[in-house]
Amino acid sequence: MNTSIKRVLYFPITKIIVGIVVPFSLFVVIQNFVLKPLFYSIIQDKNIAKPIIHFISFLVLLAAYYYLFRLYDKRKITELSLKYFFKEMFGGFFFGFFTISLVIFILYLLGYYQAISISTAHYPIKFFTVLMFAAIVEDLFHRGLIVRVCENWLGTNLSLVIGMLVEVQLHFFNPNFNLFSHFLTLIWGFTLGMMFIYTKRIWLPFFFHLGWNFSQPFYGSNLSGLNDMGSIIQSKFNGPELLTGGAVGIEDSIFTASFLLLIGIIFYYFAKKEGKIIKGKLFKR
User: Which CA distances in Å does 114 have to 28, 231, 233, 243?
Assistant: First the structure.
């Protein structure tokens, strides 16, 4: 292969573009021309068909990413390693769910949260599979691809900054978002970026993300400004928007932002202590 072509093909930005375009293109084709026609034709109830489609789409994205980079980089795809999968699955989901639960508990003690009733009738399984698919898209391509490639190229600190800025762009047009919401999004990008950098796998940030997102409608809160993601506990929030998160949801609470930042700082501390904060190839020359 021509040296100039090889240099362009393996340039970090090229890798990021190819790593997004190829798996997404395959996913769009398979979902729209295979999965939807197939499952909508054999399953009349879309509340049953959609979760199946979401789950298979989840696997399609993972497989497309895996085989693309096995061919492209000719390496082991360590970011999808299953070595500590169950530990990171249960630990990550619990950790994400517990963080939001702690904020709910504080609001309850302050008199700003009231549980009215509990029912699963307002939470069909399709909502959970939507959260699962949305989380894998963000964590696979944001953390597993962009942060990973940028860290090898520019180093950990710059990759974190880039990851935080990308995070803001991903959520910029979320409904009801305000200035504080974007500040929280920067913290989110930092903390989940650090989870990936510390483990070098997507599973801990992915399952933390899933537990975090599931817990909000679970407690009857809006999710990132969305009020149509169902609920399990029908509840009432009544208090200062700075504490309850207002129309954005509980993740926009100052309590939530503080806990999230603390988690990110702890991961950064341990990563630095263990020598996982690195200089990129660009600065080693």
Answer: 42, 14, 10, 14
Are 112 and 238 within 8 A, CB to CB?
yes
Closest CA to 160 of 275, 264, 259, 282: 264
Token pair of 273 as six digits: 């202590």
Partnered with residue 113 across adjacent β-strands are 237
Cα dihedral 22, 23, 24, 25 in deg (nearest 10)? 50
Alpha helices in 81-178 (DSSP H): 85-110, 125-138, 148-154, 156-171
Cα-based angle 141, 145, 148 (whole degrees, multiple of 5): 140
Q: Are 120 and 242 in contact (CB under 8 A)?
A: no
* Residue appearing with tokens 């190829």: 22
For tokens 């999808």, what's the residue? 80
Q: Write the pLDDT tens digit of every residue in 29-63.
A: 999 999 999 999 999 888 899 999 999 999 999 99
| 253 CA to centre of own chain | 19
Tokens of 198: 């510390």
* pTM of structure: 0.95
Residues 6 or more apart whose Cβ sits within 8 Å of residue 162 = 146, 147, 150, 154
Closest C-alpha among 276, 33, 56 to residue 147: 276
